[in-house]
């Protein structure tokens, strides 16, 4: 028995395969908390790299000071969003509702409704109205849940980064443990691999978000829309969600556009967002992802399509990192960071 166990521990490929299956099973059981896990990982990764960037130029800058200043900036941005952007959005929505009510009370709406009911049955209208109400309820619930999840992820990432050195020292104790040392070594191995691949894709998505924001702000400036800076900030944040973020930004932009120029501006914004979405999906996303991950554009785009089908929006975020991670683990293709480490 001891000999078989020792052979298993010495057989690194088999051992890592078993550990990989354990990690997959664990994540599957924790799938209800996957939003919190991924958001905490993203926030922590960004803050840790910001700490390294600042300390590269200011070596004596304390880690705690960098973390506190960063989170104060985040809180300031949230305050700006709640106090400046949200009232503006609520005002635009109220104007739109009043316009819809005025249209509904007009004679033109009566003729339009009678024309519609001539071709559409009453039951069909009621069914569609129920679906719309259900969708609106689920959307509102999802937004509330996502807000709480984001808040919890920010707290967890703050406590991790504020004690970064202590966290690393404590985590290293697991690798130095006795009986399960091999298990924690393999978990650290997979963790480093995934961090490298995810970081590469995160950098690519950051550049894509900058391009989307620049294109959108140029279009809004041409249309002479108000609050371009606030709208640009919203578009940048939503653009960090690959592909879907640009489409989500269509809703608040259309509301603001309707209050400025009516239905004509809504059509302009719809056409602009669809063009930017096409540029992101078919040009920026495959090109940036391919250049950062060194994958062919065809494979990158194919992975995005398959991952979105199975995992939805999160599939667009983690699809390419997971695919690159599997290539690296299977020794099919290493990441740029691993190549540089081997070269050194």
UniProtKB/TrEMBL annotation:
Cellular component aspect of the GO annotation = membrane
Give the main localization category: membrane
Membrane-spanning residues: 12-28, 34-54, 66-86, 143-162, 198-222, 228-253, 265-285, 297-330
Which keywords, in A-to-Z order, does the entry hold? Membrane, Transmembrane, Transmembrane helix
Subcellular localization, as worded in the UniProt entry? Membrane
Q: Which InterPro entries match?
A: AI-2E-like (IPR002549)
Q: Which residues form a coiled coil?
A: none
State if Transmembrane is listed as a keyword. yes
**Looking at the Swiss-Prot or TrEMBL record, what is one Pfam family this protein matches?**
AI-2E_transport
One biological process term from GO is: transmembrane transport
Topology versus the membrane, per the UniProt entry?
A: Multi-pass membrane protein
Instruction: Give the family this protein belongs to, as stated in its UniProt record.
Output: Belongs to the autoinducer-2 exporter (AI-2E) (TC 2.A.86) family.
Stated name of the protein = Putative permease
- Record the organism: Lactobacillus helveticus CIRM-BIA 951
């Amino acid at each position: 028995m001891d000999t078989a166990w020792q052979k298993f521990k010495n057989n690194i490929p088999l051992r890592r395969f078993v550990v990989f299956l354990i990690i997959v099973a664990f994540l599957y059981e924790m799938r209800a908390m996957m939003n919190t896990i991924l958001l905490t990982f993203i926030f922590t990764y960004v803050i840790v790299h910001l700490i390294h960037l600042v300390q590269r130029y200011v070596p004596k800058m304390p880690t705690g000071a960098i973390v506190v200043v960063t989170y104060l900036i985040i809180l300031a941005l949230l305050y700006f969003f709640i106090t400046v952007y949200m009232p503006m959005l609520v005002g635009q929505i109220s104007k739109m509702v009043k316009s819809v009510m005025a249209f509904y009370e007009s004679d033109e709406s009566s003729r339009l409704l009678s024309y519609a009911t001539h071709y559409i049955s009453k039951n069909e209208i009621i069914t569609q109205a129920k679906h719309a109400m259900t969708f609106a309820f689920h959307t509102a619930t999802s937004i509330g849940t996502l807000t709480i999840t984001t808040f919890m992820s920010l707290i967890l990432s703050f406590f991790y980064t504020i004690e970064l050195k202590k966290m690393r020292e404590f985590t290293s104790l697991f690798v130095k443990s006795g009986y399960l040392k091999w298990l924690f070594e393999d978990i650290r191995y997979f963790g480093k691999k995934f961090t490298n691949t995810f970081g590469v894709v995160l950098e690519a998505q950051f550049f894509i978000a900058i391009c989307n924001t620049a294109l959108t702000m140029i279009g809004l400036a041409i249309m002479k829309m108000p609050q371009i800076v606030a709208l640009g900030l919203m578009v940048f944040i939503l653009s960090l969600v690959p592909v879907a973020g640009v489409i989500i930004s269509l809703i608040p932009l259309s509301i603001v556009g309707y209050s400025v120029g009516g239905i004509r501006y809504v059509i302009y914004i719809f056409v602009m967002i669809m063009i930017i979405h096409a540029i992101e999906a078919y040009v920026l996303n495959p090109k940036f992802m391919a250049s950062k991950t060194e994958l062919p554009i065809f494979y990158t785009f194919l992975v995005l399509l398959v991952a979105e089908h199975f995992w939805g929006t999160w599939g667009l975020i983690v699809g390419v990192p997971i695919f690159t991670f599997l290539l690296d683990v299977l020794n099919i293709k290493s990441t740029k960071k691993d190549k540089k480490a081997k070269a050194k």
